[in-house]
Every structure is written in structure tokens, then in C-alpha cells.
Specification:
It is built from seven helices and ten strands. The protein is an alpha/beta fold. Strands 1, 2, 3, 4, 5, 6, 7, 8, 9 and 10 form a ten-stranded mixed β-sheet that branches. The N and C termini lie far apart (43 Å).
């Protein structure tokens, strides 16, 4: 049996997130998450921010509550990779979350199109393992993202330039070959990252709303890899992306 045959729609799950996490009263229904500790470090500095819970995934990851126009938004740090990010998503959904907004960096497969704009994925190529446990392989090579249109509307409302496009989700950052990058670009993928297909598949299986926007950090579109700002995002840009995420979450709440 291959990974393409592992989806089991009706089999009983041996371990469920409800067995491992508590469901606190008043847990926020809308959460924001990114893939850097700076996400929660910056959230903690906002007026009135308070830690309301903790996720434990080999380390303690605080969940911070912030107030935006009378609404409570949760903020937590996700972990890099589809399996880890989907596992933490399962846990916040078990705690009571209904809508989760992911944001983070990606590699540009088309540097010119992605420059100066955030990217809203409309579908994610399933070059990872996690999505095949939440959606059948017969559902296709891509996970469609039904929340993309609404996210675009909200970005319009707050005046943030964006681009719709497909993304390539892969488990293997060091096996992004030029051949595969060209194939994905031909299929309409403008970016490459490590989580989108996984979290979107998990969300659809659990009946939750998950949104995601990306910003290009490095570029794979030239004759040589260009690291650009990968791992060196300026502090003011980290703050800006969190502000964008909170503005969106406020409107989703």
C-alpha cells in the first residue's frame, strides 16, 4: 500500500486531540498563527495582551489573547512543516477555535509576479504526506482553498496589494529541484512552502475555516537561488505582517 492509499474516511482514530488538550472557557474562535517566535513575542507587547493557554510540542508555545475593536483574537506560533502545523491546528480546533489565519514566508517561483505583494493561495500542490490522511488522493494533486476569495476581499478592505495563485507544498526543502520547480510553475504554482496543503486538508476534514497569505522571502526563479531576506526579515516588516494578520482576524471574528 502506498501513501496515496492511506486515507481512511471512516476508521476510528486511535488518538484524538481532545484527549491531549483542555478546552478552556472563553477560548477565542479566531486565531492568527505564523512560523516564527517573533509572532507571539510581538503579540505579547500589544496593549492588554495576556497569555491564556499553552501548546506543548516538544516545547512550550504560548497562546496570547489580544483585543481588537472589542473582539478577542488568539495568537500562537506554529511549527514549520505540514505534519507539525496540522497537528497544532488540530489542537487549537479542539480547544474551540473556528477560524485560523496562517501567514508566513515562501519561496518565489516567479519573482516578478510576487514582488511587492502578498500571495493568497487558491490551491496547494500535495507534495507532502499529511494531506493524504485528510483527503483522498482521488481528490486530486491539489487541495483547493475555498477561503481564498474571502481573504482577498479582506485584503482589499485594508488596502494590502495581493496576488492570487497556486502554491507548491513540499516536505523536502533541500529536494526542490529545478525540474520539479519548472513542473510546478507550469501547473500555475507561483510559490513554494511547507504547510499549506497540509493545514488546508486538515481544516476541510474537520469543517473549520483556515486562511493563509504568504510573502516571498527567497527566490527560486533565477539561474541561481537568491536567499534575499530569508531568515533576515526586518523587524518593521515582522510587525507589519502581524498587523495585517490581526486586521484580517478582527474582520473574521
Amino acid at each position: 500500500m502506498s501513501i496515496l492509499e492511506t486515507f481512511d474516511a471512516s476508521g476510528e482514530e486511535i488518538i484524538r486531540p481532545e484527549q491531549l488538550v483542555s478546552k478552556p472557557d472563553g477560548f477565542p474562535e479566531v486565531l492568527v498563527t505564523g512560523f516564527s517566535r517573533s509572532v507571539t513575542d510581538l503579540a505579547t507587547q500589544l496593549p492588554g495582551a495576556v497569555q491564556i493557554d499553552t501548546l506543548r510540542a516538544g516545547m512550550e508555545l504560548p497562546i496570547i489573547a489580544v483585543r481588537r475593536s472589542g473582539k478577542t483574537i488568539g495568537v500562537y506560533q506554529s511549527l514549520i512543516g505540514g505534519a507539525a502545523s496540522a497537528g497544532l491546528l488540530e489542537e487549537v480546533l479542539a480547544k474551540g477555535a473556528k477560524k485560523v489565519l496562517f501567514y508566513g514566508s515562501c519561496g518565489a517561483l516567479d519573482r516578478d509576479l510576487t514582488a511587492g505583494r502578498v500571495m493568497v493561495p487558491t490551491a496547494a500542490f500535495r507534495d507532502e504526506g499529511t494531506s493524504y490522511h485528510y483527503l483522498s488522493a482521488s481528490d486530486g494533486d491539489f487541495v483547493d482553498i475555498p477561503t481564498a476569495g474571502r481573504l482577498g476581499e479582506l485584503l482589499d478592505e485594508i488596502g494590502v496589494p495581493y496576488l492570487y495563485g497556486k502554491t507548491w507544498t513540499t516536505d523536502a526543502i533541500y529536494r526542490e529541484t529545478r525540474t520539479n520547480a519548472a513542473r510546478r510553475l507550469k501547473q500555475g504554482c507561483l510559490t513554494v512552502e511547507m504547510e499549506c496543503a497540509s493545514v488546508m486538508a486538515a481544516a476541510q476534514f474537520r469543517g473549520a475555516e483556515v486562511y493563509q497569505f504568504l510573502y516571498a522571502a527567497d527566490s527560486l526563479s533565477g539561474s541561481r537561488w537568491d536567499p534575499r531576506i530569508l531568515g533576515r526579515l526586518p523587524a518593521e516588516e515582522k510587525e507589519r505582517y502581524l498587523r495585517i494578520a490581526l486586521e484580517i482576524a478582527q474582520r473574521l471574528a
